[in-house]
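User: Could you go from structure to sequence for me? I need the amino acid at each position, not a summary. Structure tokens:
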């Protein structure tokens, strides 16, 4: 198995043939940066952990260049920092017992370019061979350009597959912008409470980001806990940790469905909900 960028990296934590590991994939996450998978797809990682009949594959599309560096990493060159982040991702894959970890190492600018041939070829290779049941992507309302670009490139790649070979379920998970604003009827609830002992440590391996002054480990744990409590105002908490996702499956079932219209329809339903509640409680 070979990908287009010379710096691409393939790790099979348990050893063995990467192509065989890719073919075994049941749960797949394609995300922009090192540590994004551990933010958006913890429920998928946990669903596959230690299971002979399931296998998690993580794909990081960019090279992790340009990340902030302070403290012990202050003097690192951009190349050294990319290597640190690559190694951190390998560690997370080992800790989470992923079947396969791929790091495609594309510059962020190439991913944001629609139709970049290397990015398209790599994602085609992943989606053609993986045959996952569930795919965890960034969501289209995320506020990080690279996240949205990776989401778009992934949907484009899935739409190039014959229908019978497409994943059964595709989810857009919260990352840079929470999805609390989705109507409850639009929310897919991903239960992140299955492996509390893994949730913290698998984010803590990304020390270069945490030392860079971004406490993603605390922020993500806090968001998951808040989601579990704020899911329902009239019932006691049934979950301890949750991530919200948007169900993107309609986008891969209907090639004619505009991604933009699909995303904006979710915003319109929020708008209608706010307007209707205010009108009702104002006696109108
Ligand atoms: Zn990211």
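Assistant: Here is the amino acid at each position, in order:
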């Amino acid at each position: 198995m070979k990908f287009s960028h010379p710096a691409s990296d393939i790790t099979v934590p348990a050893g063995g043939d990467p192509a065989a590991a890719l073919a075994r994939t049941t749960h797949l996450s394609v995300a922009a940066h090192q540590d994004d998978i551990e933010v958006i797809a913890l429920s998928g990682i946990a669903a596959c952990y230690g299971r002979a009949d399931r296998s998690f594959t993580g794909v990081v599309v960019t090279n992790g260049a340009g990340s902030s560096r302070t403290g012990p990493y202050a003097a690192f060159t951009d190349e050294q920092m990319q290597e640190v982040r690559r190694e951190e991702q390998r560690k997370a894959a080992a800790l989470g017992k992923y079947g396969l970890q791929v790091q495609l190492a594309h510059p962020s600018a190439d991913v944001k370019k629609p139709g970049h041939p290397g990015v398209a070829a790599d994602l085609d290779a992943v989606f053609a061979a993986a045959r996952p049941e569930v795919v965890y992507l960034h969501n289209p309302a995320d506020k990080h350009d690279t996240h949205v670009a990776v989401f778009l490139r992934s949907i484009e790649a899935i739409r190039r597959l014959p229908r019978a070979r497409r994943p059964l379920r595709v989810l857009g998970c919260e990352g840079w912008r929470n999805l609390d604003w989705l109507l409850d009827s639009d929310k897919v609830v991903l239960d992140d409470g299955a492996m509390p002992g893994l949730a913290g440590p698998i984010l803590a391996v990304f020390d270069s980001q945490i030392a860079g002054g971004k406490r993603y480990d605390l922020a993500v744990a806090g968001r998951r806990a808040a989601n579990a409590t704020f899911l329902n105002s009239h019932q006691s908490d049934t979950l301890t940790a949750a991530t919200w996702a948007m169900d993107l499956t309609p986008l891969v079932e209907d090639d004619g469905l505009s991604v933009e219209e699909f995303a904006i329809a979710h915003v319109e339903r929020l708008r209608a909900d706010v307007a209707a509640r205010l009108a009702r409680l104002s006696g109108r």
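One structural detail worth keeping in mind: Residues 32-33, 36, 144, 147 surround zinc ion (CB under 6 Å).
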